[in-house]
Design a protein that fits this description.
Blueprint: E1 9-13, H1 38-41, H2 44-49, H3 51-67, H4 72-84, E2 92-96, H5 102-106, E3 111-113, E4 116-123, E5 130-131, E6 151-155, H6 165-173, E7 177-181, H7 193-199, E8 203-208, E9 220-223, H8 226-229
The structure holds adenosine-5-diphosphoribose.
Length: 239
């Protein structure tokens, strides 16, 4: 595929883009944590019932993400951004459902974590996210220096609203191509972005080893892993 200087690319990534970095996807084999489905851990109800349990889950995810390295898919997206944004930095937008930082470590710049960030936390009362790489794996939980309330992961749990949806919709409306990578198409509102793109007559492409649940909404499905497919998906000048 060819990208022209007139193209504006909106990329949506899911857990599949980090699979080849060794981070487990949510659904399918390996998507369990100590025998629990993610839906049982990543909810406000789970937090209310047992915040230590939830923090152990996110501490384990912090450990795994810190040990992981960006793979060729992350690097390819950073290179596509570099190519497209030579004249206009707004020609590329990466919206990720992932909470790891592998896109940033690969060099992506214009990135939005719609489901929050693994390396940020926030006080349940003050609500201001701050950088946090600590592990909370004992019964003693972190509390806010200002108000004493519990500190929670800065993660959008099931039943909570993803971050900055208005910005996401505005970026999508200006795009010419939507490239979706490694997401099962089963979690909304992310899974609905392709339908909005189609209404705007935006070209929609999916990349992953199997068809997502919302496959019928895409113009094109490319079956393959992210690391195998993305480095050559667009014919960019070689460096
Ligand atoms: N390359 C590309 N895609 C892959 C790869 C790979 N190497 N390996 C697996 N996949 C695909 C799977 O085929 C699957 O469709 O990645 C997708 C992963 O789907 P999910 O586990 O459902 O992850 P995701 O869609 O990102 O989940 C969405 O759900 O649990 C919540 O908030 C969490 O952000 C997450 C959201």
């Amino acid at each position: 595929m060819h990208l022209t200087p007139q193209d504006r690319l909106f990329v949506l990534t899911g857990a599949g883009v980090s699979a080849e970095s060794g981070l487990a996807t949510f659904r399918g084999s390996g998507g369990l944590w100590n025998g629990h489905r993610v839906e049982e851990v990543a909810t406000p109800e789970a937090w209310q019932a047992d915040p230590s349990f939830v923090w152990r889950f996110y501490s384990a995810r912090r450990r795994n993400a810190l040990a992981a390295q960006p793979n060729p898919a992350h690097l390819a997206l950073a290179r596509i951004e570099q190519h497209l944004t030579q004249n206009d930095p707004t020609c590329f937008y990466l919206c990720t459902q992932n909470v790891d930082d592998l896109h940033e470590r690969a060099g992506s710049r214009r990135i939005h974590h719609m489901h929050g960030s693994l390396f940020e936390s926030r006080c349940v009362r003050c609500d201001q996210p701050f950088p946090d790489r600590a592990f909370y794996e004992t019964a003693t939980l972190p509390t806010c220096r200002d108000c004493g309330s519990l500190i929670r992961p800065h993660i959008v749990w099931f039943g909570e609203i993803p971050l900055d949806m208005d910005d996401i919709y505005a970026e999508l409306a200006r795009a010419t191509t939507l490239l979706v990578v490694g997401t099962s198409g089963s979690v909304y509102p992310a899974a609905g972005l392709v339908d909005i793109a189609r209404k705007h007559h935006i070209c929609t492409i999916y990349v992953g080893p199997e068809e997502p649940s919302n496959a019928a909404s895409f113009n094109q499905i490319i079956l393959g892993t992210a690391a195998q497919t993305l480095p050559a998906i667009f014919d960019l000048p070689s460096q």
